[in-house]
UniProtKB/TrEMBL annotation:
Signal peptide: none annotated. GO terms for molecular function: DNA binding; N-methyltransferase activity; site-specific DNA-methyltransferase (adenine-specific) activity. One of its GO terms (biological process) is DNA restriction-modification system. Belongs to the N(4)/N(6)-methyltransferase family. Residues 630-657 form a coiled coil. It comes from Shewanella fodinae. This is site-specific DNA-methyltransferase (adenine-specific). Residues 135-443 form the DNA methylase adenine-specific domain. It catalyses: a 2'-deoxyadenosine in DNA + S-adenosyl-L-methionine = an N(6)-methyl-2'-deoxyadenosine in DNA + S-adenosyl-L-homocysteine + H(+). It comes from the Bacteria. NCBIfam families: hsdM. PANTHER family: SLR6095 PROTEIN, TYPE I RESTRICTION ENZYME MJAVIII METHYLASE SUBUNIT. Keywords: Coiled coil, Methyltransferase, Restriction system, S-adenosyl-L-methionine, Transferase. It is an enzyme of class 2 (transferase).
Length: 806
């Protein structure tokens, strides 16, 4: 059975738990990633003489498994890894972590137990068959770990990882297409762990030739490892300082030039001049100006521009300050704008990156069309994100919107526009995005006349025009004309939402909105998923078609609808699809027995319990089997549950009424002041008062009724569970497809889209209610009410012989 993505991720994170405490994340990442690498290459290439990695005898993960419990497990693990590194020219890449370090892993038995458990976690993963072509399960798992390591490492160690969401944007805006040749090159001068390079390469149908340089030794090792895990073993990653000692040069000793470049250089580098005299730079990178000595942001941008071919394209992440800072940076910025190198600027939200909380931007370079450039396309995407712990994160819809708007040069109010170079020149070549795009929401102004004389301003109602275009009759049912320029409410504020939801126009709108979904669901043909299909290609295709289905739907945002699908894909659907493309639809029959080793706790919640055996359904939850095949039995279980609830309630009420201080059941209380069946039975043998005996007998009767109801429910539930258990192997392929696609996937997606339709109308209802409540009482009415209440107070005080004066 294929490993699901989320199950793999949880196993990998469990391996981190074995190391957490002895060292911080920036250190234990080396151990976990090395173990992942060893397991992967052993499973995939052991015994394969033509594999990209040679696994000689004695250097496989199996040899590490044999060390569990060994007194010399640390030293012998180091030797296994070292031998594999030596064989494959990976010295300094996979042998960075010291598995015999007592300071980090503990001494004696502590080290033995920790490493044995760590190896055991990876031992249970079969990574040989869990990577379909084009879908890098291990590569994705690597990125999952990198994100968590960066999060845990904090500010000082987060620089080795660019969030994958940002990487995707860079890779999609630099101009790589389906026609891009495999021979085309992509370069990152500060490549970190290599995620930007890999994302860019993935955009080409057959990948790209990868070149990178990274100054930090440990991080460059991560990049090499990452390339192999992503099946890019030929990628060229060099260690060294790109600015003072660039490694990629042509035959003439000048900088090698590339077709594409992506980079997330360190922000505001304070010592970029170390080892270099910018005035005498042999590579002529500072033709357009020398960046300030204490701020190296433009250093990397200039290096990248010099490293691009005359037709080259690139994208660089830099702090917002590069757009508007003065002096030397202003001169560089002006020169680059005049040269036409800058194609566009994308402003990102703050707090996206692990090394800093400041907002950043993406500067997109295009040397190919530099001389013809008449403007710079700007996007203010600073408000599109979701909170994720203490960081912000771009959602799928944010990424899609940025890429679509930028690549198609779509101008949208308060979001994007093409800014003419003449306008930029008039602003002294300042590129600060707010100068050109006002992304602020219009201010909600109060109407003084409405507050004084009553009525709802017509202009406020008119601002909801996009709703009234769809719901003209709803507007008429909510408002009527009052004095000139003002309207009166026809519905109480508390009834606005129900009025909208129950209106025929809304029902028509909701039904029409769902038709887009039903048409998409039919065209998606999800029941045709086959073994060998590519999950990433599938979600790309069906998400794009869903976007198109809702591209012209009134009121609804196609990006919000897209997000519904992408969230469900991430949470549930992708795991299901990964199983289906590897094991086929018969996987729907599988119930995996959960086996717990002695002394351990059950790590997963079982879906079915049959006697003492516990099972997990791989694809089809038992509730779907019940709904499809055992509706009558489920109805009977529900009926028995209701009967039990009633019996429990009746017993609880009776005990509460009769077990007080003077209650007839007071003598049946135990030492915890509770009446139980045992205490009632015991008291019955001693009681002599007829009223007490009657109360005790009634209590016993109710206890017995509750017990009988519990037993009846358990018997019925056990019978239903057994019937469901026996139904799984009987399922036909058509039944499995219908259960997974219709009852599970499409039903949940439809439910979420219905909720989105209602959410849109909720926004209308909230605004209408707000306006009604704001102007419900004009100032004269409020003043009169205050006077009336004051008179009442004065009257009451006078009656008491007091006088109230102001």
């Amino acid at each position: 059975m294929a490993i699901k993505k989320n199950e793999l991720y949880s196993s990998l994170w469990a391996s981190c738990d074995e190391l957490r405490g002895g060292m911080d994340a920036s250190q234990y990442k080396d151990y976990v990633l090395t173990m992942l690498f060893m397991k992967y290459v052993s499973d995939k290439y052991k015994g394969d003489p033509y594999g990209m990695i040679v696994v000689p005898k004695g250097t496989s993960f199996d040899d590490m498994v044999a060390l569990k419990g060994d007194k010399e497990i640390g030293d012998k693990t180091n030797k296994i890894i070292s031998a594999l590194a030596e064989e494959n020219d990976l010295k300094g890449v996979i042998d960075v972590a010291d598995f015999n370090d007592e300071d980090k892993l503990g001494k004696g038995k502590e080290m033995i137990d920790r490493l044995s458990k760590l190896i055991g976690i990876f031992e249970g993963l079969d990574l040989s068959s869990n990577r379909a072509d084009g879908d890098d399960l291990l590569g994705d798992a690597y990125e999952y770990l990198m994100r968590h390591f960066a999060t845990e490492s904090g500010k000082s160690k987060g620089q080795f990882y660019t969030p994958s969401e940002v990487s995707r944007i860079l890779s999609k805006v630099i101009g790589i297409t389906g026609e891009t040749s495999q021979d085309a090159t992509v370069y990152d001068p500060t490549c970190g762990s290599g995620s930007l390079l890999l994302k860019a390469s993935d955009e080409a149908p057959r990948g790209l030739s990868i070149f990178g340089q990274e100054m930090d030794n440990a991080t460059s090792a991560l990049a090499r490892m990452n390339m192999i895990l992503h099946n890019n073993a030929t990628a060229k990653i060099w260690k060294g300082n790109t600015i003072s000692d660039p490694q990629w040069k042509d035959d003439n000793g000048q900088l090698k030039t590339f077709d594409f470049a992506v980079a997330n250089p360190p922000f505001s580098n304070k010592n970029w001049t170390s080892g270099i005299n910018p005035q005498e730079d042999e590579f002529e990178r500072f033709t357009w100006g020398v960046p300030p000595e204490k701020n190296g942001d433009y250093t990397f941008l200039l290096h990248i521009i010099k490293s691009l071919k005359s037709t080259g394209k690139g994208a660089v992440i830099l702090p917002h300050g590069v757009l508007f800072r003065g002096n030397a940076e202003a001169r560089i910025r002006e020169n680059l704008i005049k040269q036409g190198y800058i194609k566009g600027i994308i402003g990102l939200p703050a707090n996206l990156f692990y090394g800093t909380g400041i907002p950043a931007c993406i500067i997109v370079i295009d040397k190919d069309h530099a001389h013809a450039r008449k403007g710079i396309f700007m996007v203010d995407a600073s408000k599109g994100f979701i909170k994720d712990g203490n960081k912000n994160r771009l959602r799928s819809q944010d990424i899609y919107k940025i890429v679509e708007v930028f690549t198609k040069q779509l101008e949208q109010p308060r979001y994007s526009r093409m800014v003419p170079l003449s306008e930029i020149a008039a602003n002294d070549y300042n590129l600060n995005i707010p100068r050109y795009i006002d992304s602020s929401e219009p201010e909600d102004l109060h109407d003084l006349s409405a507050h004084l004389q009553g009525g709802i301003p017509k202009r406020d109602i008119d601002t909801l025009e996009r709703y009234w275009n769809v719901f003209p009759s709803i507007r008429a049912s909510l408002f009527k004309a009052a004095r000139e320029g003002y309207s009166a409410a026809l519905v109480k504020a508390s009834e606005v939402k129900s009025t909208i939801l129950n209106h025929e126009e809304f029902k028509t709108f909701a039904a029409a909105s769902l038709q887009h979904y039903h048409a998409w669901a039919h065209a998606a043909a999800l029941t045709e998923i086959s073994v060998g299909d590519l999950p990433k290609a599938l979600i790309s295709e069906i998400s794009e078609s869903l976007l198109q289905s809702y591209s012209n739907a009134p009121l609804l945002s196609k990006y919000d609808i897209y997000q519904i699908l992408m969230d469900y894909w991430s949470d549930v659907m992708q795991d299901d699809v990964y199983v289906l493309v590897q094991d086929g639809w018969t996987a729907g029959k599988v119930l995996r027995e959960l086996v717990v080793k002695k002394g351990e706790k059950l790590k997963e919640t079982p879906d079915l319990v049959i006697g003492k055996d516990k099972y997990k359904a791989e694809l089809i939850p038992p509730a779907l089997i019940v709904a499809r095949f055992f509706a009558e039995e489920k109805a009977q279980v529900d009926k028995l549950q209701s009967a039990l609830d009633s019996a429990c309630q009746e017993l609880e009420t009776y005990l509460e009424e009769n077990s007080g201080e003077d209650g007839l059941l007071n003598d049946a209380l135990n030492d915890k002041d509770k009446v139980t069946k045992a205490t009632v039975t015991a008291r019955l043998k001693l009681a002599t008062d007829s009223d007490e005996k009657a109360a005790l007998k009634q209590a016993k009767k109710l206890f017995d009724a509750e017990a009988d109801a519990k037993k009846a429910l358990k018997d019925a539930q056990d019978a239903l569970d057994l019937a469901v258990f026996k139904q799984y192997p009987k399922l036909s392929i058509d039944e499995i497809k219908s259960l997974i696609v219709n009852d599970k996937w499409l039903a949940m997606l439809e439910s979420n889209i219905v909720a989105e339709i209602e959410r849109v109308t909720q926004q209308l209802a909230n605004r209408v209610k707000e306006l009604e409540e704001r102007y419900s009482e004009p100032l004269p009415a409020i003043t009169q009410s205050v006077e009336n209440l004051s008179d009442k107070v004065a009257g009451h005080l006078k009656a008491m012989g007091l006088e109230w004066t102001l």
